[in-house]
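SAMPLE LOG
Freezer: B-3
Tube label: C17
Construct: single chain, 191 aa
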Amino acid sequence: MSTIQDDIADQILLSKASIAALSVGSILLVPQMFDAFNGMFPSPMTTFLVGRKSSPIRVENDTVKSGGYNLNIPDSIKALNGAPSFRLEMIRLPTAGAILKIGDLLAKSGYFTKTPELEFMRHLRNGIAHGNQFNFVPAEPRRPASFETFVIENGLHGKTVLGDFIESGDVLALFDLLESNLRLGLYTVGH
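STRUCTURE (predicted):
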């Protein structure tokens, strides 16, 4: 029988896999890599079909007939290559999304009063939700919030979370610790 701890640990694992897949996929944003990849197919990819609620994708006989949104790949690559800082930001986006998802799951389970690394995760999640900036109410942080050499203190208020304070690799290491501790049953559910 699966526990809440196992369910959250599974979501952490899924989030790490998504970050890995998107990071590997970002290599294709270099025009030469995309051209080489695209050259392996009989007809070049110029768009990527993205699902929409308002226009569901309709498939007949393994062929898309209608629906969805066609994202123009060459235009997107051109835009990213015109602004290299966008590439770094693009790699951080799935990490930010994973922080929000895992933070929300942990919050619903009442884990945040237990350990410095869970308190650390709570502040990362809140900072990402506040435009990627630490945002403390008076007297925050109330409890120790740390992970490895990172310590969250009130002086970080207004500072950038992902990119300045911490990077995606550090978040993945935090996820490893949280996943392991969840599977070992070191965190208890509290509300």
